[in-house]
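Example 456, ligand pyridoxal-5'-phosphate.
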Amino acid sequence: MNMQTGAKASGAAALASALTEVRTSLSGSIERNRQAGEALALEVVQTVDFDCPVYIETADGCRMTDVDGNTYVDLTMGFGAHVLGLNAPEIRKEIQAQATRGWHFGIHNTRQTELADLVRLARPGNEQVAFCNSGTEATMYAFRLARAITGKQKIGVFDGSYHGAHDYALAKVDPKSAPTKPGTVLDGAGIPPWVRTEATVALPYAHDACFDLIRRHSDELALVCVQPVQNNNPSVTQRDWLGELIEVCRQNDVLCLFDEVVTGFRLAYGGAQELFDLEPDFTVYGKALGGGLPVGAIAGPARILRHFKSASTEKGVFFGGTFNGNPLAMAAGVGALQTLHARRDDIYPSLVAKSDRLVDAINAFASNQHMDFQAINAGSLICFHFQKEAISTYRDLQHKGSFAERLFYVALLKRGVIVPAIHLAFLSDAHSEEDVTFLIESVKGALLDVRASNLI
Ligand SMILES: Cc1ncc(COP(=O)(O)O)c(C=O)c1O
């Protein structure tokens, strides 16, 4: 056996033994997973690579309890939707009150205007808002809007980005291509091949080469869509590059969209663009906007949003959806945003302080122990990576899916901490300083477990 095969075998053995141990307290979850495997084509968390599925029964604050009665401190926070924590009373109150009045009408309801007014408070450019049901729908409509306004067809997307699950968002930048000459690949089967060649321009994130590419493609580029903070390497260091990006787009008649589905109402009430003091042409939101119920939105100046077709206009961009703006989801959003806006001076600095403390303590430990591991964060967006090398863009990421990484998440689960594995982890207002201390100690313990198996 060569060294690499030996390391792989011992990694697999360490993971198998940790899974055997943790599964003894998860018999209810294991049974439900078996049933789900028969009934469901795929489960909702199919994008999350859990070695050990856990089925949650109840959730409150920063804690979740599974069907076997185990309680965990949660870092999933509904994939970022819960800034106030799980089952937040301010949101629950609005949902309950609305549920007694009815939860879906189809016909006009005043809750949409209430939530729109709260979105308008987020940024001066948010003159108007259109609601849909997810971040995916929001980017889909935003791409269509940009094509209609500019009369051009292509959308510029950056390497390492995620903009949702519709066809046009799934032409991705090939991570193997050179940043100066980025290529595209389709993420999965069933996407028309022309989406890659006719509808997309690949751009390198945080790299000045993107500016020339935008200039070169300006005749066909309708829109550049950018995450001001990326999911897998969250950092708040790209202000100058983003500012130049907006400028280059303006000079070349290309619209610039900020995808703030993760960052909106989480990094700051006005999202990353408030933090950076930048103004893109328009913005998409999701996640935190709905306080845990499905809401997406496109927001921006009337000069952009007026291109959506209304019932009285024949021309324009089609926008539709049975559940768009439904009063129950709007009520949850109102509960969330009202509270976040009223408490913005306290919630956002506190989220940053708690998250920085968590990440700094973990990094100090890993560095003292000479472990190839680092935590990175932009406020309450947190990622763990099993590498020492600095990460400034997605292209710097290595070693994803290693046995060390997989064992780490199982070891955390054993200690009562749920992290959505490869996905971003999130802190919320409901995580107390004591919870943060518990998380720090849990991560240290899990890292020591990985070391005990000689994987780090
Ligand atoms: C930056 C970004 N944009 C868009 C989306 C799609 O949002 P949704 O999952 O609500 O469709 C996501 C989802 O994680 C996201 O992270």
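Summary: The mean pLDDT is 93.
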